[in-house]
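Anyone up for a design puzzle?
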């Protein structure tokens, strides 16, 4: 794969560009003089020209192309924009102020085969409704069908999706390793850093005291997830924080797990009121109870997204550390298969 091209003789500028590229998960081709750039000029997905060699490059008459930037450490230099026009650049990147933009540009160039994955959020209508079990089951079922899946634990007080799936001892990054992250994250770097098992990549919390997820960190993770995965499943807290709002704003659909009893419906209505201000489609996934499924969905004023009858021996399996049973004879298995078929078509 062709790499971004940097043209500069300025060692300080080159050091900064290499550092920014590393943060974006990108490798560079470097030409110290314009003549050495000729073989790469048309092939490179992105070209960054140092202000120190801009005039020399312009003198060689490079053919016009897109995605050329002029990089400089010199601010307020009246000659900068003349150089920018001379090399056919689309903009000037003054470092260090423009580092975040440059990270995004390098990351775009390093990930040309980006996907556009679906984001599905799962929330519980009340405590113990089974939202985390459904989120984990849906992600696991998708990964078993060779759908590239990222499962994101967004509930700091949920007990941990890694524990639910028996992966609490797995090596890899947790939220505490990512909370300071701002700007773009490479999806390849994210996948490499997180625990992965049975084709499923998981981002969960550490054991012990946890801090809320900053909105910026959630945004970076979900954007990387959408570029690098077919499906991102997010287990939401019932009390929405800034990170949950970020996830809801990117959701293709949100599943609200509701227990089919009066208290369950009333509690779910309170949760739904918070969800509606931040996302589009919300569907009711109804746990069996004394009320009819259609009555539950009609009472909430949202579409019926499916039913989850009680599944014998599910609690015992989870207590043993087993993954949720997802066979075709199980209610979880049937729901997940139907939902994925609707989302991805008959190939899922």
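Challenge accepted. My sequence:
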């Amino acid at each position: 794969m062709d790499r971004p091209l940097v043209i500069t003789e300025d060692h300080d500028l080159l050091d900064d560009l290499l550092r920014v590229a590393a943060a974006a998960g990108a490798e560079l081709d470097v030409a110290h003089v314009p003549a050495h750039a000729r073989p790469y000029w048309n092939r490179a997905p992105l070209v960054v020209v140092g202000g120190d060699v801009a005039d020399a490059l312009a003198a060689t008459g490079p053919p016009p192309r897109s995605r050329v930037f002029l990089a400089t450490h010199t601010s307020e230099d009246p000659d900068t924009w003349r150089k920018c026009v001379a090399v056919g650049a689309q903009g000037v990147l003054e470092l260090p102020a423009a580092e975040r933009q440059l990270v995004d540009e390098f990351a775009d160039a390093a990930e040309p085969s980006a996907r556009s994955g679906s984001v599905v959020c799962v929330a519980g209508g009340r405590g113990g409704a089974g939202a985390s079990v459904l989120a984990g089951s849906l992600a696991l079922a998708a990964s078993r069908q060779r759908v590239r899946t990222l499962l994101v634990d967004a509930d700091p007080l949920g007990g941990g999706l890694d524990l639910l799936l028996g992966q609490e001892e797995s090596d890899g990054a947790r939220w505490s390793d990512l909370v300071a992250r701002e700007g773009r994250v490479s999806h390849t770097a994210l996948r490499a850093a997180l625990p992965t098992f049975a084709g499923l990549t998981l981002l969960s919390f550490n054991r012990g005291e946890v801090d809320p997820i900053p909105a910026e960190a959630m945004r970076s993770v979900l954007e990387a997830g959408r570029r690098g995965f077919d499906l991102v499943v997010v287990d939401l807290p019932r009390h929405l924080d800034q990170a949950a709002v970020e996830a809801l704003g990117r959701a293709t659909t949100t599943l609200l797990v509701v227990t089919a009893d009066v208290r369950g419906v009333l509690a779910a209505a309170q949760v739904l009121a918070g969800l509606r201000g931040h996302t589009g489609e919300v569907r009711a996934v109804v746990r069996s109870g004394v009320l009819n499924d259609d009555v539950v969905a009609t009472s909430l004023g949202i579409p019926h997204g499916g039913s989850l009858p009680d599944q014998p021996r599910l609690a015992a399996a989870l207590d043993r550390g087993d993954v949720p049973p997802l066979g075709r004879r199980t209610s979880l298995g049937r729901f997940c298969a139907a939902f994925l078929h609707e989302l991805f078509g008959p190939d899922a």
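A detail worth pointing out: The domain at 118-344 is CATH 3.40.50.300 (Rossmann fold).
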